[in-house]
Amino acid sequence: MIKLHFLGAIQQVTGSCYLLEIDERKLLLECGMIQGEIKPNKPVEKFFHFDPRALDAVVLSHAHIDHSGLLPALVREGYTGPVFVTLPTFDLLGVMLKDAAFLQQKDVEWENKKRLRAGKAPIDPLYDINDVEQVLKQVVPVDYGERSRLLKGVDVCFHDAGHIIGSSIVELWMSDKQQTRKLVFSGDLGNKCSPLLRDPHLIEEADVLLLESTYGDRDHRPAAGTIEEFKQVLDAAMEDQGNVFIPSFAVGRTQDLIYHLGQFYHDGKLQQQKVYLDSPMAASVNDVYLRHTELYNDDNPAFNKSINSGVGWQKWLPSLTYTRSTEESMALNTISSGAIIIAGSGMCTGGRIRHHLKHNLWHRRSHIVFVGFQARGTLGRALVDGAQRVNFMGMEFMVNAQIHTLGGFSAHAGQSQLVEWADHFKPKRPRLYLVHGELDKMLCLQKRLMEDHQWYANIPSQGEVIEL
Predict the structure, then answer these.
(1) Tens digit of pLDDT for each residue in 19-46?
(2) Which member of 45, 138, 158, 372 has the greatest number of CB atoms within 10 A?
């Protein structure tokens, strides 16, 4: 008997996690954090609804923290088996999980200061750098397009999803004592307008399909219009004698932004004289992207020549400066105008962007540009939803800055792209389950699939179990 447990990213976007039972074998597909839910005093058993020691293998579609961020906790709780990923994902995990461990350590230090004053016992982080190092020892990199044996009767094949470097669509073949079933997990499908990466690989056969639905309710604005709007925002900031602040995900979105800013520079359209990448993690991710330029598309030969020049990103965008130290980051808040500051995190849940918002959110000449999805409950979501006042870092702030949302820069496929990709599964339609989306978005995609293709899409509930 083959069973699938829906444990995470169910009627929400983050926290990807699915457990597969194939007779006595147990395979975990994804091990992600729920955005904004990691609290320093939350017990680890609240995250895992299974025994980590009983798992035989783990498969990850890509390195984003909402897909990988609980791996070190899994290892701390006793998981000793392999973690199958693509090679670029392995490279990214070393950067991202170490950063996550560092941030948790800082959160715990802050929490323990409060607990000490309250006469409470100190707590430990969910995981630390030693757990991350152990995870990396257990990783097994697999090439795109290579069908590999995970366990007895269980094979995997990764295909390029075009979302971030190393992201994959996952094919799984699972055999119990009676039958073989094929499950396809879309992972996060990339936007076909990505300036760097290739379009998602097409697959035509499956018994069960798990399809992401982050933007299941709408299509993105065409790329040309979004790029023009971005240019207008930059020009408006110069007219206002202000700065531009871009909360950006370190992986994927930051590299796309540098690409577009570099194109403005080469076209003579970039008025700002300095672009600051205020994220040590994003700077490290840039290095990973440079190690895998063979995965880029061929749309812009001039960019590919620059990026492979030995100088890399700063050859393409000469005004780019990395601010690695805390002191360099703090100094950016003394710049009165004419700067573009890209800083993490993308949803403003942590990182240096919150310090920049603290100093600039109440200035009318500041421009805040959101270029990615903002999950419910995050500071970023409050700002794009039009909040006039927000609370963070223990203070209340008036929102006077100009807030811009550029949805066309999303690294996720829009509704029509999702439907078009899924429509290649024919003539036999697999059983379809929508994951990675808020319920209202899922319902829109469900309706579109039924109306256009007479294909019913199931919307699973948290903890639901199905038989394959």
Answers:
(1) 999 999 999 999 999 875 555 555 555 6
(2) 158
DSSP secondary structure string, 151-206? ETTEEEEEEE-SSSTT-EEEEEEEE-SS-EEEEEE--SPPPTT-SSBPPPPP----
pLDDT of 51-109, one tens digit each? 999 999 999 999 999 999 999 999 999 999 999 999 999 999 999 999 889 888 888 89
Q: What is the largest CA-CA distance in the chain?
A: 70
Cis peptide before 345 (omega within 30 of 0): yes
| Sequence spans of domains, the chain | 2-218+411-467, 223-409
Q: What whole-number distance in Å separates Cα of residue 209 and Cα of residue 18?
A: 13
The CA-CA-CA angle for residues 146, 151, 153, to 5°, reads: 90
Structure tokens at 228: 């023009």
Exposure of 332 by Cβ count < 10 A (0-12 exposed, 13-18 middle, 19+ buried)?
buried
Burial class (CB in 10 A: 0-12, 13-18, 19+), 147: exposed
Which of 342, 349, 341 is CA-nearest to residue 381?
349
Q: What CATH number should be reported for the domain whose range is 223-409?
A: 3.40.50.10890
| Distance of alpha carbon 215 from alpha carbon 187, whole angstroms | 14
What CATH number does domain 2-218+411-467 carry, 3.90.78.10, 3.60.15.10, 3.40.50.2300, 3.20.20.70? 3.60.15.10
